Amino acid sequence: MKEENQIVMAVKGIILHEGKFLIVQRSPHDSGGGTWEFPGGKLDFGEQLESALAREIEEETGLSASVKRILYATSFFTHAHRQVVINTYLCTADRNDVTLSFEHSDHKWVDFADAQNYLPENIKHDFERYQVANMPEFLHM
């Protein structure tokens, strides 16, 4: 039986607060356990991108983030028949006291130099490809 192709749409938020941005570590029991990423997740059918992201950020971190604008979009395959498309947005938060959901085991507020020690190569590649560090919001970090 032939496996059906699947496209998954997800949103992620680079949340700025006082010159740093938030990264979260996936729980060991979760797919991709131990990797660092930005908060976010899959869209529910009928959701708008920005409202899905605000919901995911609140569920995963307890933060009420303001979604500002899209920074970049990328896609990758998790296996031959499953493609994930991710839109990454700039967000802000007015506080930094994070309450993690079961999906994540740790969090850090980092600058670009610190992020190099945690983020996986594919995210670092996206940062370089889309010149995130050169965007006005990040120039003075």
TrEMBL record:
CDD domains: NUDIX_MutT_Nudt1. Coiled coil: none annotated. SUPFAM superfamilies: Nudix. It holds the Pfam family NUDIX. InterPro entries: Nudix_hydrolase, NUDIX_hydrolase-like_dom_sf, NUDIX_hydrolase_CS, NUDIX_hydrolase_dom. GO terms for molecular function: hydrolase activity. Residues 6-133 form the Nudix hydrolase domain. It comes from the Bacteria. The keyword Zinc does not apply. Keywords: Hydrolase. Signal peptide: none annotated. Belongs to the Nudix hydrolase family. This is 8-oxo-dGTP diphosphatase.
